[in-house]
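Chain A, query sequence.
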Amino acid sequence: MKLKNSKAQKGFTLIEIIVVMTMLSLIMVMVYEGIKISRSMSEKGIKRIDATNEVRVVQELVRRQISRILPIAFKEEDGEYVIFEGDQERIMFVSPMPGYLGNGGPHVQLIEIVNAKGGKILQFSHWLLNDSLEVSDFDDSDQEPVVLLENIKGAEFSFVKLDEEGELGEWENDWENVGNTPLMIRLDVEMGENALMQWPEMQVALMLDATATNRRVSNHLMMQGSSSRGEVK
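Chain A, predicted structure.
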């Protein structure tokens, strides 16, 4: 009687299955990490684009408002009409407002660097120009300032004017001639560590001549002169 040869069993051994599962696990981890990295890079790219757009919009607004400064007095102090105030932390002036930001027409505007939690911020305030020339009109306003830029490590304004020889002078951090406007204004900003976009250099030249006559002051002086002559009569 002949014995039949038993056929060898076909299939995977336990070791082979373990090896295959381990390789699949490694492949899945690599795929997941790739997707995670791609998503993270995409999110960072979007945040960087948003930060770039934010800085660009803020610069455009600040540049527009500064370049259109009007030689109009917005208050009177110690018998002197103030057209422009400025130091390294703030500037105050009169400029027309864009229609989408206000009622249009000339507004008293304040751009200032303010200490805030975690650093500094750049904020913007504005008030409709009136004939009172009273500082209290700005202090009593219930209008909240608009935050233009956050995450600032340090910032400062500086100004330039013509020297006695008619040449451009040095940049100064304090503007003393409040009855006149600078020729150019510079805003330097150093962004914080977490900022995704640095502040490009910004120097703004005023569209109007800094030595232009202040019609608003002239009108006030003419009115005062007329009333004085009336009292003499």
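Residues 51-211 form one domain. Confidence is low (pLDDT under 50) at residues 210-233.
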